[in-house]
Fold:
Amino acid sequence: MKTGLVLEGGAFRGMFTCGILDVFMREGITFDGMIGVSAGAAFGCNFKSRQLGRAIRYNTRYCGDWRYCSFRSFIKTGDLFGGEFCYHYLPAHLDHFDNDAYDTNPMPMWVVCMDVETGEAVYHRCDKAGDETFEWIRASASMPMVSKVVEVGGYKLLDGGMVDSIPLAKMEQLGHERNVVILTQPEGFVKQPNKMMPIVKWVMRRFPHVVEAMAKRHIGYNKQLEHVRAQQAAGKAFLIYPKEKLPIGHVEHDPEVLRRAYNIGVARAEEILPELRAWLAQE
Structure:
């Protein structure tokens, strides 16, 4: 019976996930496969490369660098989160991403993107680290309206969280009967309709399928939450989520705020560790 790991996005709320994943690495907890969407993909790749502490290190070090995330970056490059800097220059020159460790780890990693021409989810298995895989991860985390469309693998792509925010069903389809799901919103969260849809319709008018997907996102997200909770009740999913709304937004330039969200993840993982070990040990 295969056990999978499912990572929701949420931009810098993903620092909570980073804290949990670092505890998993420290404690030697592994999975038969993982899938990440948006920040879940961008930060989750460090779990496959087994680089404990890397995500919190480079985020706190470079969160104030305009090349990493800023409106200056958006004006100069078209990306709020600098695509070239974040996904190519930083891992190659500033905080080394261990390509060899990633490649030799047998656990497959999937990322979720959105095809802007159809509004449908695209799932890609990233087996080998390198520029192409980093472009797939970049696409998964490229938020509409503040990111350029990423062209890779014959697709034109943006943030997969618009169409499959919690890709548990995909992992089940891939044969993972039991899954650990890390969410970045507290229990009881219900996604509301996007209040910015009038602006979305104008900014994204070249991509009507993207507009439609964003307009319906709250419906799909809440249905996914229902599925996740049903699988939890059936013993097929183990959910980890913050106890309260995380004290961090989509964009954050204060290293201490990032570390606070990370430490909440560490504390949460340590708290549920005995229960998780018992669940993982079940047949």
Q: What stands out?
A: The beta strands are 2-7, 33-37, 109-115, 121-125, 150-152, 155-159, 176-182, 237-240.
